[in-house]
Specification:
2 copies of one chain form a homodimer. By secondary structure, chain A is of the alpha/beta class. The first copy, chain A, has a domain of 202 residues: Nucleotidyltransferase, domain 5 (2-Layer Sandwich). In chain A, helix 6 runs parallel beside helix 9, helix 8 runs antiparallel to helix 9 and helix 9 crosses helix 10. At the A-B interface, strand 13, helix 5, helix 7, helix 8 and helix 9 of A face strand 13, helix 4, helix 6, helix 7 and helix 8 of B.
Chain lengths: 342, 342
């Protein structure tokens, strides 16, 4: 790799609720350097107040920003800075108002908000998306991953309707319509499932967790997880999550599942309910995704791939590096990367 | 009331996970005295160990038992003692094995387990019930409330299928078939919904609780609760609980629900999902309860009555004092109350 390619073209921040990841990207959008910091929007560094010295509420953001990429900026003062995630929420550094669905993907990059750091650096903040349906849905940060995943698709041969799944604390299922040839895609709908956060709350703060042990599953033993996945498609599964989760305990009481199994079973059970419900919603909309793309943590994507297969969705791909690619695409669409990248 | 009526006929304990309630009952089963203690099976009093003195694991039960009714026993040494609830679980004082469904109500009282206190008192322990379906269900303590509620029915005019609902941390919906005239009832099925415990975990340990405020609802303002109740029967409700709960947050973000409303809305939303799912299960079994009886905390029964009405179940009665009446009925069925009560 020659020196020009190693020069900083873009500083990109994935700034969520609980962590901050900073990427230094090169001429082709490749990652030259990556930093992971604990300074999520809800976990910012404490600013020590000097006596009689007022600190405004953006000071913790400034501090985290400096630590994340202050030296990179001084080393490449002309490189633009872009940030996505909860940093653009009402509790963030600067609110970047939600954009409403349906929306053309390119439009997101042309609607960035800006905030100026104390050092004079302009930080471009990616807006979140809102779907104002009967039960509104919002996302912040996932829109960037969706754009990253889309940028990796082979445009020539893509079907018109795809489903991008971002499993996690709040899983997002994003329905995208690809325009043929032009590759101008629209995000049409999305759904949120609080599967990961509910799982953690059930394990840590209800009776279900009391008899659980940390699972130490070897690579091939997925029996308890698979058993849980299938519950939602049985007649008993119609009782819904509030009821079926109790079987985690009763299958323990009756000697069917041991402590480690119970944890795996509950994980599968929740993911199965999520997929079953999503399929019901898609069927109602007559939305038939011919392609399902998973974005996220590798182990979690593995779980979802297994579960999706159990529900008849075999054509599942996993998209890597969606966040940094998405930030790169957004900067490009915003015209931040100069004429060479337009 | 004359002196004979004031004499202790039965000492009855409702001994659950988090609390212990002791009843001193008179000749007609009426409550002469009631004590509420914090000594649930998972919250027993600490026993101080003297050096070189071994205390067996039943010691905390003995201590709580003495505090709950030691003086009552000394005052009426021939009065029998009966206890229901988690005291009969594997973690209890003495395990009273589960009885399997379907079961004749009278059979429960004839299958009590016993434990002998250090003072020589025999304590009769009510068994729990288990339904060994695909997803097993268990109850301990609620069987006693069901029996108490049944004892209050006007036997002459009762329909053959009734539904007894015990809302709470783990709501139970119990399907009972009443034999005509003979009043020999059978418990046929029951379902568990972890609604109360999930509600608490969501409010206290997920993002949904962050923007909530303690609700200070005046008696007539149930708009947010009612709005939540209806979600499960809308098209959006088909996404299931894992998805719909997120609307608690988004309806806050979009200015529709304030902090107090969000708490009420989530309560209604979960109860609505519970009722909708239960109705789907009953429809599948072609079980049509002509009578619905609620047992439990008055405020919670009020919430369920509102929600049941929204789902077309108008004929809802609330049964009071079901626990103490159930313990009395069980003691009678067990032959503990002597020939006068047979």
């Amino acid at each position: 790799m020659n020196q020009a390619q190693n020069q900083t073209q873009l500083i990109a921040l994935d700034w969520g609720t609980s962590s901050l990841r900073a990427y230094r990207l090169g001429a082709a959008g490749q990652v030259l350097e990556l930093r992971s910091l604990p300074w999520g929007v809800m976990k910012l560094p404490q600013v020590v107040l000097r006596k009689n010295f007022e600190v405004d509420e953006t000071a913790p953001f400034e501090l985290a920003f400096e630590e994340a990429c202050g030296d990179w900026i001084r080393g490449a003062p002309h490189a633009p800075v872009i940030a996505a995630g909860m940093v653009g929420s009402r509790q963030g550094w600067r609110e970047a108002p939600y954009l409403s669905l349906p929306i053309a993907v390119d439009q997101i990059g042309s609607t960035l908000s800006t905030v100026h750091s104390r050092g004079g650096q302009t930080v471009h903040i990616v807006p979140g998306l809102i779907e104002n349906s009967a039960l509104p849905n919002v996302m912040r940060g996932e829109e960037t991953q969706v754009i990253g995943a889309l940028s990796m698709l082979d445009a020539g041969n893509t079907p018109s309707e795809i489903l991008i799944v971002l499993p996690g604390s709040h899983s997002k299922w994003v329905q995208v319509r690809l325009q043929h040839r032009e590759v101008q895609s629209h995000i049409e709908h999305f759904h949120t499932f609080m599967t990961g956060e509910v799982y953690a709350a059930l394990c840590d703060h209800t009776i279900l967790g009391r008899s659980m042990q940390t699972s130490d599953v070897n690579g091939d033993d997925h029996a308890a997880f698979d058993r849980g996945v299938l519950v939602a498609q049985t007649p008993a599964g119609r009782a819904g999550v509030l009821s079926t989760i109790f079987s985690t305990r009763t299958l323990g009481l009756t000697g069917v599942l041991d402590g480690a199994d119970q944890r795996e079973y509950l994980s599968g059970l929740l993911i199965g309910h999520e997929i079953a419900a999503l399929q019901a919603l898609l069927a109602e909309q007559a939305h038939q995704p011919s392609r399902v793309i998973l974005v996220g943590d590798a182990a979690l994507c593995g779980r979802y791939t297994r579960a999706l297969r159990a529900y008849g969705l075999d054509q599942v791909e996993v998209a890597a590096q969606a966040t940094e690619r998405g930030l790169w695409q957004l900067a490009k669409a915003a015209g931040l990367l100069g004429p060479l990248h337009r």
